[in-house]
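To fix ideas, we reproduce below one chain and its tokenised fold.
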Amino acid sequence: MRKRERAASEAAVAAGCEAFLTGTLVEYWEGQGMPVPVWAWTNLLAHGSADLIVERVTRPQRSRRVARRWRIARSYMANVLLEVADGPRRLRSLQSEILVPLELEMATLPAVREWTPVQWVKAVDWAIRNQPTRADY
């Protein structure tokens, strides 16, 4: 691999990692023309700041028709998450103790690949509302 190609490849890996860690993986992959797996719709909720979550919900990017149902589902769950969290400390607890593990679990379960937005909403909603975190105590 040439130096220039290697540098471009490294930059792409770094951009993907940044998108994952900041909660913008869906938008990154869509921008690259890549398909978005079901588990990735959890990424914003698991890693995004409250401000980013609000921004993505109130000003969604135009997307393909298929992704529209997923954006509606993610917006609904973002509103649920922010309501349940009721502040930055509880949001961070929900993210680190519930949503990050859920995101990773979804990524490893083959059945999740076939989920509809409704199935995803039910799973994420249940996890947010029914799993205690340290902030609850």
